[in-house]
Amino acid sequence: MRVHVISDVHGRADALAAAGEGADALVCLGDLILFIDYADHGQGIFADLFGAERAAEFIGLRTAGRFDEARAMSARLWATLDGDPREHIERQVRAQYERLFAAMPAPAYLTYGNVDLPGLWADYARDGHRVLDGESVEIGGLRFGFVGGGLRTAYRTPYEISDEEYAAKVEAVGEVDVLCCHIPPAVPELLYDVVARRFERGSEATLELIRRTQPRYALFGHVHQPLHRRVRIGRTECVNVGHFRGRGVPFVLEW
Q1: CB neighbours (10 Å) of residue 242?
Q2: Predicted confidence (pLDDT) per residue in 125-150, tens digit
Q3: Contact indicator for 34, 45 with CB cutoff of 8 Å
Q4: What's the first-to-final CA gap in the chain, in angstroms?
Q5: Could you tell me which residues come within 8 angstroms of residue 242 by beta carbon, excluding any fewer than 6 positions away?
Q6: Which GO-annotated molecular functions does the record name (predicted)?
């Protein structure tokens, strides 16, 4: 059995179309949307609406940890648009989801990332796309559990939830062979992004489940350039499957 696993697609519909080639199934760990591109300031929803120069300024404030200033700047820009800013965002997000789900191979098993809008996925998922969050499913004789979204941060991305709500989803998944999450377990070397030079948030609940149940694999994304891509916890191989927008190739899981 061969499964390809991707995360942090961030708009790469071109590479997504080939991500399932040679695989029995595709697993996608979320972050389909590209809101703002830290590498190319001219890409993403923010730049489409306000231009690359404003995107670069916004990124600079967030990178410096000046989140209140970044939010104030963003509010000023949104106020320049006609109508409700949420309508502009949803229109852009829907356009991306339409392209991305059209390119998504099947069969595919998906969960949400922290920048996704879960309420819109049902409008675009096709036959052969199964969305799971706090649920498990059998693939090729192994039990795969899925936990989507992220924990609350200063970035206030769309699908951030409380530690308690996240832990409840982890507990609902329970004992599985392969644990699939968008964010990593709370292990420092898996959370530090060496390019952004900051720690992202990881899940203590996920780490506790791994220690207690010892799945074969724990797979995740979220941290685009991690200090370590792989860490072993007991018999569990914890793997960051890679920044799909940057690399364009899936992680391969075979058994």
Answers
A1: 21
A2: 999 999 999 999 999 999 999 999 99
A3: yes
A4: 5
A5: 6, 7, 8, 221, 229, 249, 250, 251
A6: hydrolase activity
Task: Give the pair of three-digit tokens for residue 162.
Answer: 């409380």
At 35, the amino acid letter reads F
What b/e sequence results for 123-142 when a residue is b if at least 16 CB atoms lie within 10 Å of its CB, and e otherwise?
A: ebbeeebbbbbbbbeebeeb
Mean pLDDT of the residues in the chain: 96
Domain spans in the chain, listed from the N-terminal domain onward? 2-33+105-254
CA distances in angstroms from 98 to 66, 147, 176, listed in the order given: 34, 23, 32
Is 79 exposed, middle or buried (CB count within 10 Å of its CB: 0-12, 13-18, 19+)? exposed
Q: What is the mean pLDDT of residues 110-116?
A: 98
- Count how many residues are written for the chain: 255
- What tens digit of pLDDT does each residue of 174-198 get? 999 999 999 999 999 999 999 888 9
Asked if residue 220 lies in contact with residue 180, where contact means CB atoms within 8 angstroms, the answer is: yes
Strand 108-110 and strand 129-131: the pairing is parallel
Q: Which value, to the nearest 10 degrees, does the dihedral of the CA atoms of residues 61, 67, 72, 75 take?
A: 100
Nearest C-alpha neighbor of 207 from the set 178, 253, 170: 170
What is the second-level CATH architecture of the domain 2-33+105-254?
Answer: 4-Layer Sandwich (3.60)
Q: 102: Cβ–Cβ under 8 A, 6 or more apart, which residues?
A: 13, 124, 126
Q: Which two tokens stand for residue 112?
A: 């949400």
Contacting residues for 16 by C-beta, under 8 A, at least 6 apart: 6, 9, 100, 103, 104, 105, 244
